[in-house]
Design brief:
Layout lengths: L1 H7 L9 H13 L2 H19 L1 H10 L3 H26 L4 H15 L3 H29 L3 H8 L8 H26 L3 H9 L4 H31 L11 H12 L2 H35 L1
């Protein structure tokens, strides 16, 4: 009888409670299943490359273009950020000329496909600039300035390598997208901060440099990170200019060996690995910034 009473008065198990079941279901729903999927793909790919000679050959051949892909993306993004910041400032400028010039640039670039822009800048824009230098050289020579005239006249189309043209094309293209990001970031800062800075004797540019821009850049950092990842992927388009990035080298390897499956699976996994690692890096940086702001 005592044993029966003891059993009936035992408190219910937490594991059998509705709250615990709801907690488990919530954990299942919010678990990063996409990350588990990527981890599985990474393990399968690593095992395949380690045990399959054709995949090993493809990886060893294609990885030679990693330096070109990474350097092209980094350099182009730095120039795109500078151009985007200047254009973003122009978009919010009170000067009618600069505001309309910046808007014209953004609308034109955003309205043309990136591949077309790469072709145009690399194969039309750069040769036109070289031809302009030559014309200036002739003019300087005719006016007695032979030294500078000879220097300008000596410019040739092949003096600008395709890698440089690809960087210019990516910079101009992404400069327009980053301009809108910077514009939105600057406009997200309350007008009162600019007015308070001006009331303390700061000039417009001092207030922008020391008060507005630091806050705006922190606000748009996630968007900048996303655009950097997008540029890394879009850098594959420069392969149409015969730039020896990983896409171009994979295409050459596949055409030479006829191992299309091995070449393009390896290429896809290399891009996926870089973009996922960059995504984690950006999330880590965002969390660090949030922690610093909460202190």
């Amino acid at each position: 009888m005592a044993q029966s009473v003891s059993t009936s008065t035992r408190p219910p198990s937490i594991r059998n409670s509705p709250e615990f079941r709801e907690y488990i279901l919530l954990k299942i729903k919010t678990a990063p299943w996409w990350l588990i999927g990527i981890a599985i793909i990474a393990v399968i790919t690593a095992v395949t490359i380690a045990t399959n000679q054709p995949f090993q050959d493809a990886f060893l051949f294609i990885k030679a273009g990693l330096g070109v892909t990474i350097s092209t993306t980094l350099i182009a993004f730095v120039f795109a950020m500078v151009l985007g910041l200047l254009t973003g400032l122009g978009r919010i400028s009170n000067n009618t000329f600069f505001r309309n010039l910046a808007t014209l640039y953004v609308e034109i670039i955003r309205g043309i496909p990136m591949l077309v822009l790469i072709f145009f800048i690399a194969l039309v824009g750069v040769p036109a600039i070289v031809a302009g230098f030559k014309s200036l050289g002739v003019w300087f020579t005719e006016n007695g300035m032979i030294g500078i005239g000879a220097w300008l006249s000596g410019f040739k189309n092949n003096a600008v390598p395709m890698n440089t043209r690809a960087i210019i094309a990516l910079s101009f293209t992404y400069g327009a997208f980053l301009a809108e990001i910077f514009r939105a970031g600057i406009q997200s800062i309350g007008r009162g901060q600019m007015e308070a800075a001006r009331s303390q004797g700061m000039s417009y540019w001092q207030a922008m440099r020391y008060i507005i821009l630091p806050q705006a850049i922190r606000n748009v950092l996630p968007a900048l990170g996303n655009d950097f990842i997008s540029m890394l992927k879009d850098s594959s388009l420069v392969s149409v200019l015969a730039v020896r990035d990983i896409t171009q080298i994979a295409r050459l390897y596949a055409g030479r060996s006829f191992q299309y499956q091995e070449a393009y699976i390896t290429l896809a996994v290399m891009y996926l690995t870089m973009t996922v690692l960059l995504s984690f890096l950006m999330k880590f940086i965002e969390k660090r910034i949030q922690k610093n702001e909460q202190r």
